[in-house]
Write a structure and sequence with these properties.
The protein is an alpha/beta fold and 268 residues long. It has 2 domains: 5-99, Ubiquitin-like (UB roll), CATH 3.10.20.30; 103-268, no CATH class. The chain is 30% helix and 21% strand. The protein has 9 helices and 14 strands. The chain has helices at residues 9-13, 48-54, 116-124, 137-146, 156-159, 175-185, 210-213, 219-224, 242-266; strands at residues 15-21, 37-42, 46-47, 62-67, 70-72, 77-78, 82-88, 108-111, 128-131, 150-152, 167-168, 205-208, 228-231, 237-238. The chain has a 5-stranded mixed β-sheet with strand order 2-1-7-4-5, with no helix packed on it. A 4-stranded parallel β-sheet has the order 9-8-10-11, with helices on both faces. Strands 12-13-14 form a 3-stranded antiparallel β-sheet. Helix 3 packs across helix 6 and helix 6 packs across helix 9 (242-266). The chain is elongated. The model is unreliable at 1-12 (pLDDT under 50).
Length: 268
């Protein structure tokens, strides 16, 4: 029996997947999405991860997937029509708490070359952030895996790389707002420790006696300052001078943003 063209095998076996993206995952949806619901027509078995990322949403941003209202993992195979609900990390923790896909609290990061100001702000607050403005993608991925760091990048395709386990795509282009986003995503609010990490190389700072560093100080610095810290990595010396006031103002600005956000959430 001859098969008519409109009844080819690929057409007969094709099926539709309906995806509903929740929370701020709509940020990633392509212009074709008039709302948070998309449909994909598939002609073969495909993992739910691949289908979701075909919509532009990186897998590290996804904390919970429901297929026909039941939790599934990234490797779940789609082979027939299904309703897929996709939730961000900020999804309600009471919703299938044993099936969440992301770690919520991490303290070690790797920032790509376009996020220098974010890396500096996070270091200023005491967080461990590796940053190399000239690092290539393969280098970033290698360091991320070897040191088990979360990747911070605004390159969604890099974030979609299969070796990326933890990561975040800052929504804002403002460094202070990005800092708040990262702190919220990785639950860092109680871990702030300002002026404990070198802004240049990321190593920890240690208190040092003035006599140990006096030969490296400018004449006025020797006269007016008594407290010093030295980077255990690169040897950079820090003291509470005019630069300290600027850094402290930066921290206070971030704290004010945190307070405003907290107040806004409490009023909801």
């Amino acid at each position: 029996m001859r098969i008519r063209k409109e009844e080819s095998v690929s057409e007969v076996s094709s099926f539709t997947i309906r995806l509903n993206f929740h929370g701020d995952l709509t940020f990633f949806l392509k212009s074709e999405a008039g709302n948070k619901i998309l449909e994909r027509r598939l002609g073969e078995k495909t993992s739910v991860k691949d289908v979701i990322e075909s919509c532009g949403v990186p897998h590290p941003e996804i904390d919970l997937i429901l297929a026909n209202r039941q939790p599934v993992g990234f490797s779940h195979i789609l082979e027939r029509e299904q309703e897929i609900d996709v939730y961000p990390v900020q999804s309600p923790p009471t919703l299938f708490p044993e099936n969440h896909l992301q770690v919520r609290h991490l303290t070690k990061f790797l920032a790509d070359g376009h996020l220098g100001k974010l890396a500096r702000d996070l270091r200023l607050l005491g967080f461990d952030v590796v940053y190399d403005r000239d690092a290539q993608d393969r280098q970033l991925l290698a360091v991320m895996n070897i040191e088990n760091r979360a990747l911070l990048t605004r390159d969604r395709w890099l974030l979609m790389h299969k070796v990326v386990r933890h990561g975040y795509y800052p929504r804002s282009q403002d460094a202070a707002e990005q800092t708040i986003e990262v702190m919220r995503r990785f639950d860092l609010f109680c871990a702030i420790a300002p002026f404990t990490r070198c802004l240049r190389c990321n190593a920890l700072l240690e208190k040092v006696e003035k006599a140990e560093v006096i030969e490296k100080l400018e004449p006025l610095t020797r006269i007016y300052y008594e407290e010093f810290r030295r980077c255990a990595g690169c040897g950079q010396i820090y003291w509470p001078g005019s630069h300290f006031d600027k850094l402290r103002a930066r921290i206070e600005g971030i704290r004010r943003m945190l307070a405003a956000e907290s107040q806004s959430e409490n009023q909801r």
